[in-house]
Amino acid sequence: MILYLDSSALLKRYFEEEGSREVLSLWRGARGAACSAVAYAECLSTIYRKARETRLSTRTLRSLVDSFRRDWQSLIRLNVSSDLDPLVDRLVVRHALRGFDLIHLASALVIRQRLLSDFLFTCFDERLLCAAREEGLKTFPALSA
User: Fold this and answer.
1) 0.90 exceeded by the pTM?
2) Within 13 Å, how many C-alpha atoms sit on residue 58's CB side?
3) 117 confidence band (pLDDT: 50, 70, 90)
């Protein structure tokens, strides 16, 4: 299985939050993990913001950033380019998503199509999760009732 992680799911690897254990377990069991290139800026920004808000030590921050950068090298990444525009045009009409969420959804659909593999879309934004399901992606976690 290929595990697609949006930024909210990817960050579960670095911060103990609800869903962290499940994401780590899925990641360990996956044949590969994938994301959009926009996740790099989103994740680094969040790591540094959380470090400021929680007053993480410089050493802890450096360790988190180093871990993220190491993991980043192992991910299947789709670069954002104008090739995504036609798909984004279609998705924006169908789903009320923010810009980067549209890019994550479009990226996941392209990666799934290219890899022709069992595929699981993982995120912790309910609106994006619903849109992914409506586009035919298997998703984690389950939507709340």
Assistant:
1) yes
2) 0
3) confident
